[in-house]
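USER: If only I could read backbone structure tokens as easily as an amino acid sequence. It would mean a lot if you studied the pair and described how this chain folds. Here is the record:
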Amino acid sequence: MFELALSEIARHDRIILHRHEHPDGDALGSQIGLRHILLENYPQKEVRMVGDGPGRYAALTGFCADDVPDAFFDGALSVILDCGAPRLVSDGRYALAARTLRIDHHVFSGRFADVEVIEPGFESCCGLVTALAMEAGLAVPPAAANALYAGMVTDSGRFRYDSTTAETFERAAFLLRCGAEPARIYPALYEEEFSHIRLRAQLTMQIRFTPHRVAYLYTDAAAARALGADAFTLSRGAVGLMADIRGVGIWASFAETEGGVLCELRASRHNINPIAVKYGGGGHARASGATVPDRATAMRMLDELDALSGGGDARGD
């Protein structure tokens, strides 16, 4: 699966690691994990990381973007991780590199790298990076194992989502043997201040339902200011509040920002990805997102989710 990817890595002495903007645990974990693997196995290579800040994952990952001048891209390889579209790449200078490699598990929506390893059946991009290391017999130091395990945990919903397979657990076991520490990782991921618990309670009271039982939250700009929460918390961070409501198969969060309305869509059995793509977003069959210009557009998206929810048990993978 990884022959071409490994060949590109082997023949470039300068490598820049990218991932999607506004990173989650999987984006950061795959980027940081791959960096540690490359430095462990190819100490002669110069490996740099670029991208915006880690947000709530700062304490876990220790991510710090490198200062990479444009000249560093000349003759180099840019590796794009966990990113399904060119407009979402954090640091668009990947186009300056001599060669580009993409490793991703999102639904394929078009090629934009010279070499691509796209496997939507994987639970996470961290799982893909782990599989690459296993296939190639690369050493995985503990720092890489921790980063990759954290990404697997977050993108699989703590190994609950239907993308979790027997192979997922085999890769997780491999990372444990390489030094991953779940007892340290889980508190770093999921412990929170009481103020965040109180915020979740406030948001829970605002959950509403469409006629066909789509659960949703809509947080307008005024409410966001009153709550004092950032856009990530009110969008991707809030959508999980509705994940386990009995009788709900689709749920969504909408949060107004200066740049538009952030939309996070989730489902237990329907394929919501085509709706996200229609509105300029993308992702996975059961977890997708988009940014739309205004509330009216967000409500049209919600109407389409409601129609999908009322259409029966179709699982359009």
